[in-house]
Amino acid sequence: MTAAADTRLYDAIVPFDGERQAGISTPAQANLNLVGFNLVDGVDRGAVARLMRSWSEDSRRLCTGETPLGSLEPELVVAPSNLTITCGFGPRVFEVIDAVDKRPEWLQPLPEYKLDQLEDRWGQTDLVVQICSDDPIMLAHATRHLVRSGMDYARVFWMQQGFLRAYGAHKPGETPRNLFGQVDGTVNPRSEEEFNEQVWIADGAPEWMQGSTSMVVRRINMNMDTWEMLDRPSREEAMGRKLDTGAPLTGEDEFDEPDFTATDKFGLPVIDQQSHVFRAKPAEGHPEQRIKRRAYNYDIAPEPGSEQLSNSGLVFLCFQKDPLLQYDPIQKRLDEADRLNEWITHIGSAVYWIPPGTSEDGSTGDAYWAQRLLEA
Amino acid sequence: MTAAADTRLYDAIVPFDGERQAGISTPAQANLNLVGFNLVDGVDRGAVARLMRSWSEDSRRLCTGETPLGSLEPELVVAPSNLTITCGFGPRVFEVIDAVDKRPEWLQPLPEYKLDQLEDRWGQTDLVVQICSDDPIMLAHATRHLVRSGMDYARVFWMQQGFLRAYGAHKPGETPRNLFGQVDGTVNPRSEEEFNEQVWIADGAPEWMQGSTSMVVRRINMNMDTWEMLDRPSREEAMGRKLDTGAPLTGEDEFDEPDFTATDKFGLPVIDQQSHVFRAKPAEGHPEQRIKRRAYNYDIAPEPGSEQLSNSGLVFLCFQKDPLLQYDPIQKRLDEADRLNEWITHIGSAVYWIPPGTSEDGSTGDAYWAQRLLEA
């Protein structure tokens, strides 16, 4: 074990500034704190701008391992460990800043899905801050710093904590697994071209929106107790993929294209038409029905009185130009007939506009999150 | 970045079997699930023995990266990432197994401390399982496996989750920090001799107890809001140590012995007599007042209606031969006058007997946890 190996995570930095916010196309870290804030009474456009300036400046420093102004804890900021901080606006912010006419059409509650069992405590908030790091202490400290520095403007409504494999506990580029044991995130944009097609808002949008995107948050409870009653073939059939490799049931490799026309010796489809893979694929002639998934697992103490032995699931996060055109049709198809629905329940839902990236000197357009919108 | 570096955590294994249980003197991992279980009605000595046999066998396999019997999830057990699983008995187990005469004197609720604000929901349970890993997915899967495999015998009462720095985000041997930014765990046994003196029950005890120890669990809320109002010198005075290096205020290095006789130019003690360091040191002539601290940070969603902006603190775990002789006198002195009490509150408390280690062939005496006690 060499010193170099042991300090490599310590020093790892994801640039905070850029055309787009970090934490979306950048590699997913091991730990997530997704914090939903509500603005306090009396906050207006000027106050939102002050909060965004202050949070952006603090985040820039935290993500680069520098001590933010006013911090008393330099020892807790030395190891960013790939820290990213990503901020978004809920629908009400556009009312607060008196800019309802600028609010994107899609920034509203998602359509209701028949199987939803949404709980208010995991519902829409005014702001979201997605904080991710490969180090849980850095994560906690960055979260604490922003909660405190924003306390005059916004208060925590919920905090959704999640995790993936630790840094070093997986091979580079390996697709993460969820707690059902499934490879989760195979179909995802990876190239810049794919991100431009699916995620980043660009041409046609006003300048202050270019480079922005949307985030959908769905809290999905996974019933481990009933799932574990299934044998492996039944699990694979429900998903349409093999558990070991993540390959479609018609292929050998995780990234093989599923062959939905293939049939077995009885003439039945190899990939069931109610499998997750079948239901999630873009509809014929609708290549825009793709999204960037960036889901985290959760596993917390069982609720008192719960019948489930565990309290596990997904903090499902996805990014796309337009949730109504891209996420909604997929979720409608899943809600109608995905076989996985027997073991999963959507219990939380929210949508946010994710402003473009920033630059310290303002050369990208915004020196702090949403500056051009807030100072227009 | 080489493939070797990226798989080293993946393959890291802490031996499950041994004279003592792992997870006590072995290096602290990044992630903790401390699970308090209560036995279900009707469980008797034979059932406890069956549970211990089953949990020991499953744990042995999980910790070595092998799939436990009956598991459907081989993909989730490939990367132990230093997984350890450590089991303990609360006082009631000795009643259930009809062996009250064998129960250690100290296996009872700790004396009340005047500042305690204990909540039943973090109180004593029949069993405790301490699960630690450097990988949060391995941690969640191991926890789930044991919860399910034990469901006919025991149900989860609480789960206390905690974290330290990620593997690779600190230098080897570096003492961890808590969320107050303090180095936490400087005074700890490190050599085998120190562990024999302070932690492992040996000579004079019945054979089934030799190699066992006790675990004290204290859940300690840390009020970040009021702590952060202090400037750095006041924080250092309250602790008696420097924040940057963790050195005592009379020294330069973390491991320098504090000089409690040193005075400043006004003749006042450099280390305040109400500082944490002063209060925590063994009383004159009582070198046995030492413990193995293995505390984890917690940081979870704020409670609804809480006045604190954050919900942070310590899952304080310590191990010692006898909590009444070793932990209690320290905690009494801290409870009486530790200046840190202004910012911390003990909200949970429990004590467990931690059986000796195991060996697959029974050559250490127990093929499963507490076999000699349970089969006596």
UniProtKB/TrEMBL annotation, chains A, B:
Residues 21-163 form the Dyp-type peroxidase N-terminal domain. The keyword Oxidoreductase applies. GO terms for cellular component: cytosol. PROSITE patterns: DYP_PEROXIDASE (PS51404). Keywords: Heme, Iron, Metal-binding, Oxidoreductase, Peroxidase, Signal. Residues 175-358 form the Dyp-type peroxidase C-terminal domain. One of its GO terms (molecular function) is metal ion binding. Pfam families: Dyp_perox_C (PF20628), Dyp_perox_N (PF04261). InterPro entries: Dimeric_a/b-barrel, Dyp_perox_C, Dyp_perox_N, Dyp_peroxidase. It comes from the Bacteria. Its cofactor is heme b. Belongs to the DyP-type peroxidase family. This is Iron-dependent peroxidase, protein. It comes from Corynebacterium humireducens NBRC 106098 = DSM 45392.
